[in-house]
Amino acid sequence: MEVIVENLESLSDWVMLEYRNISGIVGKARLTFTNCLEKGLEGLGKIEAKSVNQLRPAGFIVLDPSAKRELKPEDFEKFRGIIVGGICGDVPPQARTSELITFPAERRNIGSGQFTTDNAVLVAKLISLGTRLSEIGFVDGIEIWLNEIESVRLEFRYPVIDGKPMITPGLKELLMGKERF
Length: 181
Known about the structure:
By secondary structure, this protein is an alpha/beta fold. The protein has six helices and nine strands; from the N terminus they run βαββαβαβαβαβββα. It is about 25% helix and about 25% strand.
């Protein structure tokens, strides 16, 4: 499965953690970042200054939470990959994917929850490998403890793998102020 990330945010430390994780999930040869004018993504995948709306890549499905049809393993018999919006999410979701990625393309959802970009890619990869969405466990919202008295609640949907929600590697350390890029 190939992945195109339509970058719609500045490359903050949090965004960079997610983009690094996506590169690890699919491999840099299968990853393209579009709408990128900033430096910093070298070595994670291909970089394209134009947006997907200008490029209009064929053979890709846009992951869109507001899409009516669910992503299924069979979709990858016809399509070679997915396009995700590199959009920092809001709670509740603001349905910005359909507003910002506007070129005509097939669209699918991976449920109604708000995912982090890297977890949306992980779920899509599992589906591309034959797993049905209904076979993947999820948890909505997690709490990350920063110390004995402070925590941060992240209101995203997380896939559960081996009994644990999949949290972006390095995110806890970033929230604790121990990691910067």
